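Q: What changes when zinc ion is included in the input?
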Amino acid sequence: MSYSIQPNTEDRETGPFFAAAAEGRLVFRVCNDCGHATQPPTEHCPWCGGWNTEWRQAQGRGRLHTWTTVTHQIHPDYPTPFTLVVVELDETPDVRLMGRLDGAPVLTAGQPMEVWFEKLNDDVALPQWRPLGRPV
Ligand SMILES: [Zn+2]
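A: The predicted holo structure follows.
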């Protein structure tokens, strides 16, 4: 799939997230003072106001929090149907990430999901999600 909008890999706060994704790694930012994760990732912790945050490696697994299937096409880059999913990381309920599945699969809230990386070009990849064990 081609996208007319791509992530800003140069952004100070979110750039490292996409740099890791380009290497096939999923990372999230955690506050060392209060233990919460910051999502979207920020150097400043919105939970406690501290600045002692760092990137951590995620296992790449989570649980399906919610989803919606889009059936009305509004942009040529996004043929329908497709399903947008929100997945909560196994490491923390503070981080919920979106992804896109082709079609209208049968899904169940809480089902295990795993990340995969959709390569957009040589430098940019997007973390995507699929039901655990299902091929892309
Ligand atoms: Zn904090």
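Observations recorded in class: The mean pLDDT is 93.
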